[in-house]
Design a protein that fits this description.
Aspartate Aminotransferase, domain 1, alpha+beta
Length: about 110
């Protein structure tokens, strides 16, 4: 599995910062693609679809959810496996941990060789 740099940056931001408000996620998208998500809706949707394809390998998914209190949209990475460990919310599966480590090591390689 190969993750391109622009999708990697958006994914890293979500994993390290946790759920992001819509405007924060849009600014990350704009930063990595140099496009406005409002003007390039198809490109933004394709960007999300590509990230979800890569996340499906480790049973994660990028979702947009509306906050029930303020009505604002947030983006976050969620686990879509319905097992006992994932219900606890504290224990990751072995493939999930390997995925996070892979992203971390790939980021270090990009920084070292950039």
């Amino acid at each position: 599995m190969v993750i391109c740099n622009r999708r990697l940056r958006g994914l890293e931001a979500l994993i390290t910062r946790g759920p992001l408000k819509e405007n924060e996620f849009h600014s990350i998208f704009s930063g990595v693609t140099c496009r406005n998500p409002g003007a390039a809706k198809k490109i933004f949707d394709k960007y999300l679809l590509e990230i979800n394809k890569e996340l499906s390998y480790v049973n994660f998914e990028l979702r947009a959810c509306r906050d029930q209190y303020d009505g604002k949209v947030c983006y976050g990475v969620v686990n879509n496996v319905a097992d006992e460990q994932s219900k606890l919310g504290t224990i990751y599966s072995v493939p999930q941990i390997a995925f996070f480590k892979g992203i971390h090591y790939l980021d270090l390689e990009v920084l070292v060789y950039a």
